[in-house]
Amino acid sequence: MKKLEAIIRSSKFGAVQESLHEVGVDFFTFYEVKGYGHQRGKNLSYRGAVYDVGYIGRIKLDIIISEEFVEKAQQAIKDAAYTGEKGDGLILITNVENITNIRTGLTNGESINL
Amino acid sequence: MKKLEAIIRSSKFGAVQESLHEVGVDFFTFYEVKGYGHQRGKNLSYRGAVYDVGYIGRIKLDIIISEEFVEKAQQAIKDAAYTGEKGDGLILITNVENITNIRTGLTNGESINL
Amino acid sequence: MKKLEAIIRSSKFGAVQESLHEVGVDFFTFYEVKGYGHQRGKNLSYRGAVYDVGYIGRIKLDIIISEEFVEKAQQAIKDAAYTGEKGDGLILITNVENITNIRTGLTNGESINL
Question: What's the rounded Cα separation, in Å, for the pair C4 and B100?
């Protein structure tokens, strides 16, 4: 089993949720995080004012998924979260050694529907 | 060393904390997350009104633990977090390659008491 | 690629950020968490009153990093987050199987600058 973590723009959350739904991924956990990106002196300039890039509010999704869903889910997130501007985010895949469903007691492949 | 992540009902947090204490697990990190579960058209009906399942407030615990504590901690969480209704949550075990205690400088098995 | 997770005192966030910047680590995600440490009867005493240790507000940093940056980043965090009092926190290293940059589509070593 795999854990897919996606750090996306908060504004793209609805689109990502819909895009995941279309590939059959309907269960996940999410929470607000802050993204810090220090541009090493490359401050952003907007209408003559200089802005430090500072912190950007983001949403992190944790999705538990079986191996065969990983590629579909990655693609669904990429399609929906993309703007082309810096800061579109990252998708991470890590291995999960064991999953237990608290209600059913089932583990790993049987613990979830994906 | 292992990382145990438990996503549980917020209402079960106190019981889980007590249950973990009884097996000697007294240190963890936790934070509020949202669980999303789209029931694919199976909306819940309550007194004639139909509800989308939507988001459910949950608590996520991150527990760093040595291998021999994993089973005890899993069982303690399952016992305390169980209601039998859908949405009781999941317990994940992942491998941690290295742990460093910032105060003591000790690593891995010596970095924590568990 | 590796994921470095650091759980630090909230009061040390600025120092850790600066210390990471000095070793070239300028991108990360962070969020507030709570640390629970039950001192098994060893309540803290302060001016005659007994306090349960209870929950402590902390900040968790998630840093995605290539292998050669891990040691530098660990050291930078340890140096800046250390007070010598219990509760200075932990640094965890876990393996990440795959990283995708949503904007560029690049993966793994090419997905980030570190």
Answer: 11
Which chain A residues have a beta carbon less than 8 Å from that of C111? 90
Query: What are chain C's partners, defined as 3 or more CB pairs within 8 angstroms?
Result: A, B
Residue type, C80: A
Query: Chain B residues with CB-CB distance to C under 8 A?
Result: 3, 17, 21, 26-31, 62, 64, 94-103, 105, 111-112
pTM of the model: 0.87
Strand partners, C50: C45
| Nearest-by-CA chain C residue for A60 | C29
Cβ contacts of C62 within 8 Å, gap of 6 or more:
A33, C3, C4, C5, C28, C29, C30
Q: CA dist A90 to A6, C49, C102, Å?
A: 6, 48, 6
Q: Is B66 exposed, middle or buried (0-12, 13-18, 19+ CB in 10 A)?
A: middle
A107, β-bridge pairs:
A100
- Closest-CA distance of chain C to residue A48, Å: 25
Domains of chain A: 2-38+53-111 (3.30.70.120)
Question: What interface predicted TM-score (ipTM) does this complex get?
Answer: 0.83
Instruction: Report the first-to-last Cα separation within chain C, whole angstroms.
Output: 9
Neighbours of B89 (CB within 10 A): 25
Q: Which residue of A has its CA nearest to C30?
A: A34
Query: Which tens digit of pLDDT belongs to each residue from C5-34?
Result: 999 999 999 999 999 999 999 999 999 999
